[in-house]
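Subject: for your reference before the review

Hello V.,

The reviewers asked for a structural picture of the protein, and I figured it would be easier to keep everything in one thread rather than splitting it across files. Below is the amino acid sequence we used in the manuscript, unchanged from the supplementary table.
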Amino acid sequence: MAYITLKDINKIYPNGFHAVHNFNLEIEQGEFVVFVGPSGCGKSTTLRMIAGLEDISKGDFLINGKRANEMGPRERGIAMVFQSYALYPQMTVFDNLGFGLTLEGVDEDVIEEKVLKVAKILGLTDYLDRLPRALSGGQRQRVAVGRAIIRKVGIFLMDEPLSNLDAKQRVTMRSEITQIHRETGATTIYVTHDQTEAMTMADRIVCMKDGYVQQIGTPKELYFEPVNVFVAGFIGEPPMNFIRVTVKNGHVNVGGNDLDLKPRLGSKLSAYEGKEIVFGFRPEAIVLNKTENSYLMKSTVELTEMLGDNTNIYINIGDEKAILKVDPHDTPELDTEFDFYLPYEGVYLFDGVTEKVIK
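And here is what came back from the structure prediction:
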């Protein structure tokens, strides 16, 4: 196992494009850390710098406290799983799994023992004689993961490994990768644009945007304590609802609903008088029966999506639109008025200029 430190890591390309800005992170031994964010946010570039596939423009990268900026990929003790699987098409599953060990000069008997053990863990025992083209996407992904874990390295890097799988295969592989991580205990860095993968697999999440780290924390912290509008909107499905409003006499008008902000802002209320703020709430934060310490919200139903375990309700709040999540038995009719209650603790307020959370 290994612990990793990134200090003020920057990536600047020859054309001047600054892909990663002042990235700082300490990853503990055996931790599963997920880099998440939209395409182009710098997460894969950061992973490639950790792997040694991209030069680090500025900053220090350390493995177990030792500077590793100039180390080659092999010297870093890293195994990487790519989005494209990167299997050798002319080799059988057995040979793909054992190829890294063959390059290291490991004895054939030891290779066979390790291949059979990994194949059993990944459910590939019956496919060892097949070529990659004879496998399903999920099976090929298992081979790619197996080829990484068989080397017993201290660091696993995974770059969007599930993006080519269908929805059912992704769910299965998520649990398999999580279980493999527990069994191997290796330090793992996993890159994805899928916030569901991040929330279900990570010990900690690094949320990125435009090359900058927005927030680092546990899935629970990013979900319940987002630091800004971007993180609040990126984490959660459906995403958080946002409505821009102006504070007047301590109140805001949210689509015709007059809401007193004193219970939420208290002594900070005066600092935002006359200013624009962002009013946010998660689709699942609502309740249908009146409770203490909640806001009454009146809306009309535009569309419903019955998903089995819940229903998404698309509503109009005055001229604003939002999404709610309710029990399917509470699904309202289209084009009807729909009243719900929003508990104070379910309301998030953000500065209208900086978009940072108002605590």
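For the response letter, the relevant points are probably these. The chain is about 25% helix and 35% strand. The two ends are 38 Å apart (CA to CA).

Happy to draft the paragraph if you're swamped.

O.
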